[in-house]
Amino acid sequence: GAHRDLPSFPTRRSSDLLRSGEPSASIAPAPGGCLAPGAVVGGRYRIDRQLGAGGMAKVWLADDLERRMQVAFKEMLVPALRTVAELEESALLFRREYFAMKKLQHPGTVKVFDCGVMETGNRYITMEVVKGRDLSEVAAHPLPAGEVRRILERMAQILGFVHSRLFVHCDIKAENVRLTDAGDVKLMDFGIMHPIGTRATGKGWGTPEYMAPEWREHGIIDGRSDLYSLGVLAFYLLTRATPLRTESRARGTGPVLATHELAGLAGLDPALSAVILRLLARDPRERFASAAELV
């Protein structure tokens, strides 16, 4: 057939990683991705087509030949010109994502099944296929306040669970929240989550327009940092824009909402706007103390 000559990639599976720890650093990951439709990984996962891609990974639709089901196959990408230390950090984050997600199984999170390392050194994770659309697609036009409120409440429930397990997601944004065909809300992509209490280094891992000010100010990252990002998400769903930020470094006031945005937001739904403005408070102490307060 058309894929007759495509390679097969031997692997090390999650059970091997549990016994032996992190694979040897001598396994140098292949730059970029190494898969293509039709390739078979470990004699088990047959790659079908690409579902999405980001800076750190590609996600493929794949057939699990052992369990006879379709899975999302997340392949770690290795950008060119990375140092050995950066490669090790990327591999550690990818491996940590799998084991953390195993602890974060919840109706609002993605089920993970397996992880491993291909012969090329590229790591992978397999997880459930979530049918539906992400919120950047759903919000092609501003959403009604009632629907935004529903999504906000459901996200607060999911984040409350994540935070109770002592993790911060760190990348809440429209592209990482999926609305299933049944209308359920699913939080995706836990690739850069951190333990609660991490000290920010000023080097942001998330998406800049969604990041809480404490990321840039060497503050402590906790659940309230995710709540700030949730406020940006709610603002986006209502307006199809992320809040415009201005800096006043001389006076040290940090990011603030533009005056016309404050007025426009209040005119949409006063009660919902008050919640969003509290989520977007520059000082974490002025936000909701926990996701539970939103539910």
What's the SSE blueprint?
Elements: E1 8-9, E2 11-13, H1 14-20, E3 40-41, E4 45-53, E5 57-64, E6 69-76, H2 84-103, E7 112-118, E8 123-127, E9 132-134, H3 135-138, H4 145-164, E10 167-168, E11 177-180, E12 185-187, E13 194-195, E14 198-199, H5 213-216, E15 220-221, H6 223-239, E16 245-246, E17 256-257, H7 259-266, H8 270-279
Parallel strand pairs: 1-3
Antiparallel strand pairs: 2-7, 3-4, 4-5, 5-6, 6-8, 7-8, 9-11, 10-13, 11-12, 14-15, 16-17
Helix pairs in contact: 4-6, 6-8
Report on this structure:
It is built from eight helices and 17 strands. A hairpin with a 4-residue loop joins β11 and β12. α4 runs antiparallel to α6 and α6 packs antiparallel against α8. The protein has an eight-stranded mixed β-sheet with strand order 1-3-4-5-6-8-7-2. The protein has a three-stranded antiparallel β-sheet with strand order 9-11-12. The N terminus is likely disordered. It is globular and about 55 Å long.
* Element-by-element helix/strand order: EEHEEEEHEEEHHEEEEEHEHEEHH
| Sheet with the most strands, sense and barrel status | 8 strands, mixed
List the strand order in the largest sheet: 1-3-4-5-6-8-7-2
Instruction: Please count the beta strands (DSSP E, at least 2 residues each).
Output: 17
Strand content: 15-25%
What count of helical segments does DSSP give?
A: 8
Average pLDDT across residues?
Answer: 83
Give the CA-based shape.
globular
- The helix content, as a percent range, equals 25-40%
Give the end-to-end Cα distance, rounded to a whole number of Å.
54 Å
Q: Which stretches are poorly predicted, pLDDT < 50 over at least 5 residues?
A: 1-5, 17-27, 246-255
Give Rg in angstroms. 20 Å
Helices and strands: which structural class?
Answer: alpha+beta
